[in-house]
């Protein structure tokens, strides 16, 4: 999934007010760009890090571009643009690359089920139905372990309970961790950050919610789907 327009490299000066980042581009210009991530970005937002950004000078746009990638350690990249997770998962589902979900022929995004209060990221159908909720993982710990969430996530807890309700209603439900960090090779709940989420995740698995983790390798040229990763509960 290529970046369009192509990304430009720079150095992160600081991230602040959650959605703003000051970047020094390779030509020496300093620009303030959109930071498209609502989490803490733990281990992904150190000043002085090498970053890649998308510059788009569109009429009416307040900021001239978006921060996309960061080098988190030598040779390891993370995509901090969390909305990219849904886009690359949509393309991977369409191409049949997420093999446990490859049998479905129809795919709809942002679907609200009858009687429900929330929208799920995807509803797969034909044959049957499967609700899919996607979470972007960029928090890397030691020895290739990735963890979610990187901050207390009441919204994430709510989504897990709603997935359990889907299963209780007789439908298939899946939580899909989209791992957009080249140094992560397995995923677990971040109990040390949000123990309630960790317990909710285990309860969801016990209730029949399927949990998958899929690796997406970030590169300055684009995002490359790699394959399934183990989930450690």
Tell me what you see in this structure.
The protein has helices spanning 84-94, 154-168, 195-207, and strands at residues 8-16, 20-25, 30-34, 50-55, 65-73, 76-79, 106-112, 119-125, 129-137, 139-140, 145-148, 172-179, 186-189, 210-219, 222-229. The protein is of the alpha+beta class. It has a 6-stranded antiparallel beta sheet with strand order 3-2-1-4-5-6, with no helix packed on it. Strands 7-8-9-12-14-15 form a 6-stranded mixed beta sheet. A 3-stranded mixed beta sheet has the order 10-11-13. Strand 7 and strand 8 (119-125) form a beta hairpin. Helix 2 runs parallel beside helix 3. It is globular and about 55 Å long. The two termini are 30 Å apart.
Write the layout of secondary structure elements.
Elements: E1 8-16, E2 20-25, E3 30-34, E4 50-55, E5 65-73, E6 76-79, H1 84-94, E7 106-112, E8 119-125, E9 129-137, E10 139-140, E11 145-148, H2 154-168, E12 172-179, E13 186-189, H3 195-207, E14 210-219, E15 222-229
Parallel strand pairs: 9-12, 11-13, 12-14
Antiparallel strand pairs: 1-2, 1-4, 2-3, 4-5, 5-6, 7-8, 8-9, 10-11, 14-15
Helix pairs in contact: 2-3
């Amino acid at each position: 999934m290529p970046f369009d327009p192509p990304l430009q490299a720079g150095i992160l000066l600081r991230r602040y007010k959650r959605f703003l980042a000051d970047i020094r581009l390779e030509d020496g210009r300093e620009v303030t760009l959109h930071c498209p991530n609502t989490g803490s970005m733990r281990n992904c937002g150190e000043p002085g890090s090498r970053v890649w950004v998308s510059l788009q000078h569109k009429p009416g746009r307040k900021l001239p571009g978006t921060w996309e990638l960061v080098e988190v350690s030598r040779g390891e990249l993370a995509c901090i643009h969390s909305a990219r997770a849904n886009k690359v998962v949509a393309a991977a589902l369409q191409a049949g690359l997420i093999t446990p979900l490859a049998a479905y022929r129809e795919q709809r995004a942002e679907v609200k089920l009858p009687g429900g209060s929330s929208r799920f990221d995807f509803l797969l159908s034909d044959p049957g139905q499967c609700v899919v909720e996607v979470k972007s993982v960029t928090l890397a710990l030691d020895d290739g372990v990735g963890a979610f969430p990187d901050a207390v996530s009441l919204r994430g807890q709510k989504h897990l309970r709603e997935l359990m309700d889907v299963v209780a209603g007789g439908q298939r439900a899946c939580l899909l961790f989209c791992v957009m960090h080249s140094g992560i090779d397995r995923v677990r709940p971040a109990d040390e950050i949000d123990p309630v989420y960790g317990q909710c995740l285990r309860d969801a698995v016990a209730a029949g919610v399927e949990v998958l983790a899929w690796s997406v390798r970030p590169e300055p040229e684009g995002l490359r789907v790699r394959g399934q990763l183990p989930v450690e509960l």
